Description:
The structure holds 3 protein chains of 3 kinds. Chain A has 3 domains: about 1-195, NADH-ubiquinone oxidoreductase 51kDa subunit (Rossmann fold, 3-Layer(aba) Sandwich); about 200-275, Ubiquitin-like (UB roll); about 280-380, de novo design (two linked rop proteins) (Up-down Bundle), CATH 1.20.1440. Chain A is about 50% helix and about 15% strand. Chain A has 16 helices and 9 strands. Chain A has helices at about 10-20, 20-30, 40-50, 70-80, 80-95, 110-125, 145-155, 180-195, 225-230, 260-265, 280-295, 300-320, 325-340, 345-350, 350-360, 360-380, and strands spanning about 60-65, 100-105, 130-135, 175-180, 200-210, 215-220, 235-240, 250, 270-275. The N and C termini of chain A lie far apart (about 65 Å). By secondary structure, chain B is of the alpha+beta class. In chain B, about 45% of the residues lie in helices and about 15% in strands. A 4-stranded mixed β-sheet of chain B has the order 2-1-3-4, covered by helices on one side. Chain B is elongated. Chain C is α/β, with parallel strands linked by helices. Chain C has 3 domains: about 1-85, Roll (Ubiquitin-like (UB roll)), CATH 3.10.20.740; about 130-200, Alpha-Beta Plaits (2-Layer Sandwich), CATH 3.30.70.20; about 215-550, Rossmann fold, CATH 3.40.50.1780. In chain C, a hairpin with a 2-residue loop joins β16 (about 445-450) and β17 (about 455-465). In chain C, α2 (about 75-90) crosses α4. At the A-B interface, β3, β5 and α11 of A face α1, α3 and α4 of B.
Amino acid sequence: xxxxxxxxxxxxxxxxxxxxxxxxxxxxxxxxxxxxxxxxxxxxxxxxxxxxxxxxxxxxxxxxxxxxxxxxxxxxxxxxxxxxxxxxxxxxxxxxxxxxxxxxxxxxxxxxxxxxxxxxxxxxxxxxxxxxxxxxxxxxxxxxxxxxxxxxxxxxxxxxxxxxxxxxxxxxxxxxxxxxxxxxxxxxxxxxxxxxxxxxxxxxxxxxxxxxxxxxxxxxxxxxxxxxxxxxxxxxxxxxxxxxxxxxxxxxxxxxxxxxxxxxxxxxxxxxxxxxxxxxxxxxxxxxxxxxxxxxxxxxxxxxxxxxxxxxxxxxxxxxxxxxxxxxxxxxxxxxxxxxxxxxxxxxxxxxxxxxxxxxxxxxxxxxxxxxxxxxxxxx
Amino acid sequence: xxxxxxxxxxxxxxxxxxxxxxxxxxxxxxxxxxxxxxxxxxxxxxxxxxxxxxxxxxxxxxxxxxxxxxxxxxxxxxxxxxxxxxxxxxxxxxxxxxxxxxxxxxxxxxxxxxxxxxxxxxxxxxxxxxxxxx
Amino acid sequence: xxxxxxxxxxxxxxxxxxxxxxxxxxxxxxxxxxxxxxxxxxxxxxxxxxxxxxxxxxxxxxxxxxxxxxxxxxxxxxxxxxxxxxxxxxxxxxxxxxxxxxxxxxxxxxxxxxxxxxxxxxxxxxxxxxxxxxxxxxxxxxxxxxxxxxxxxxxxxxxxxxxxxxxxxxxxxxxxxxxxxxxxxxxxxxxxxxxxxxxxxxxxxxxxxxxxxxxxxxxxxxxxxxxxxxxxxxxxxxxxxxxxxxxxxxxxxxxxxxxxxxxxxxxxxxxxxxxxxxxxxxxxxxxxxxxxxxxxxxxxxxxxxxxxxxxxxxxxxxxxxxxxxxxxxxxxxxxxxxxxxxxxxxxxxxxxxxxxxxxxxxxxxxxxxxxxxxxxxxxxxxxxxxxxxxxxxxxxxxxxxxxxxxxxxxxxxxxxxxxxxxxxxxxxxxxxxxxxxxxxxxxxxxxxxxxxxxxxxxxxxxxxxxxxxxxxxxxxxxxxxxxxxxxxxxxxxxxxxxxxxxxxxxxxxxxxxxxxxxxxxxxxxxxxxxxxxxxxxxxxxxxxxxxxxxxxxxxxxxxx
Lengths: 380, 134, 560
């Protein structure tokens, strides 16, 4: 696997030799883009911050990998923390950060010692003086959002901030800040060092109804069928969920590329694939995901706070065969308005799975609704 | 630069929950209004402002675990500990929470007790784990 | 910059939000969480507008860009607004449709044409029945306005959000009641709340009860700022002075006497002015700080214990408490009514006065406090046609006052009134101009200097407690400080007519200074009735009797 190659601090030394500007240019040239889901060019982000006049700047490594079904960052921290730390030091050097933070999600607290060890080791070997502080989260999905992470590190409720100003202008403690994902930063030394570094390789987290779940490194554009085959499902796969936020589609032959997935009104995001076989009920799974959002909504804006609760309510009624067709319309309207008007990415994407499920698997919902009517009739 | 979240986690780790008293002390120490500390402490699901059991069990019920039978495991745990999720056993040994994905989707169903992760759970495994903690 | 709103070309300045641009151009956009002068938080998602590419953005937090095309009322916008309003509504269904209150959310419901809500009420919070402020979390829509005011304007931090998702709610720490935390009862959260989830603790029912009681002699007094704001409750334009109508209406409500807190204000100036001169003579106790504002007093008792220890606080009771004391002693004796049979009701722009009236150390000079809003409800209760009443005068002796007292209602007023008297008492010379311009206006902190017969007095005025905190950091640079908790002073106190708008506040302040100009006497020490009461009863300022009746002490309270 490309991601497991060991740069052995050579990339850091190369960066020091190149200087800040040339390092950023190199990253730009190599075409490294953000792996948190937005695919924003990493070099450009660095450049923005490096051009800010403020003397105090920060780097944050976003290790708040909260998207259900995603475990690629954990994989990197477990298998190649040295590359990650080296990437952090290079980034911090390139943007002249005063300090770097690793925001590690609370659920991964057991990885802290591994990271600490790697930090000491790499800092000793590189002689870098940039302090790296690990901040451990405390259980909040929203803190994966780049502005919520800032609030959280500042000790506040992890609620997203209004953008603009973007973190690159006013980030942590109102200072220019770069926030990069673990996979992005781990790729930094690799991209700098190896001529054969492939910018299109991604880490896919495959899980669900497959017998061989795990992290697969494959290029963008890999057919979905191929990946599912690698997972060796026991039963035929009916649907695929791209995490909770990415929506779902019936299992089909589609290239795993953001553009293609987007065409299906889904999002590839951080390459999370949850396979669902034909024995599962989509209604129940969608209800399960709705519960996740009802629990994880930060509460800041109306549609997400109240809407996710109402959606779960209606879905539970449907699951309990206690709803009628009108509820399906309400469900759709709610889901659309939440998507259109929520404050941050969490809310805006919180109903993708539902909207797509209503589109592709509507019959399953209708069946549940109809079951109520038959039950009533027999009762009479 | 002081980090409130870090302090809160430390108290949670040491005392099992963040008491009113701890919040007031922290407020004085860090010069942060106590209302803001409470606001932050109640926002995060791994911080508690009420006393918890000695072992806090967080069991995942996100899609990957759900698709691999987490509901049965949760039901079994609830029955075994005689509590519902969100509650603490009478002997104050266990608190049980259903939590969001803990990133063990490739070894589902999974749960966490403290910093320990338990994966590929079965009823038998649950028996063994709980027994080991008694 | 040129943009298009609803297909109409509009030129707009840079730096203004889309919401402001729309307002400037007469385009109405509904808002709930937006507040003047505070950074938009964009929580409620009702001010959304549609951009050319079909995206919905919040107008309160977005800025126009050259060539932008916006629709404020498209079908998409309407649907989203309706659904979001509906999501906020369940707990209000009953109240809003039954009572048609004048709250933003209820008005919105009518505007959006919502007749039916698809969701059931879900909230089951305990109502917090505080001594001054009542919070019903069941009606709360999490707009965050009260939290923002408590934090960014008052820096009191009595409330904040807790929990998350749909469990998120506003609360003092550890779900305590407002009475049990460092809440200063200023009531600015009431003024901020767009849905009536926070309101004053009513004394109205109690007052109605004593008005019916034949055995009780019920006396009412009205604060300086009420005459400039009460009219708004009866659809008179902001800034209308309704002194005469107010007195007439209160008589018709059945009060036995209508006195003027302004008399108490004049008295406060006599005592406080003398206190200042005494401190100058003894050359200690600086800066001296005013104590008219009960929210500031409580704030100080929670957060500034040094000011008690170092005796910086004036010992004067607030004007209505001074008058209350006099009513139950001087007036009781004169009118030959047993003290126990006299009930004193204060009409105040303030919710903190309600708490103040329960302080044991004040020995209940005042029995009940009604806010301006409650007073309007009282007048409505008796079906009085307020607008068409003929003017009447306050009852004699305790109803006579000067222009110095009139301006107590605005930030800087107490300072100006005190300086007018202190100057003349200290120098024995007549002031050339009684207008101290440095104390006027809506700036958060105002400073100036005055020469009192050789002693330079450096004075400072702060309104809004965040400003007070700033000022107190540099308190040693001043000799005399006035602090009012509410931004703008009592004129925008927590008990004033809703909703609060800056323009309205300005009009009220203008009216107050107009009243000052209009009055024949403009210095407290020139008030003949004040002279009389000292001659007949109190002796002189700071006499033993004055100390006993008109002065008080302060207590350290927990900062939590």
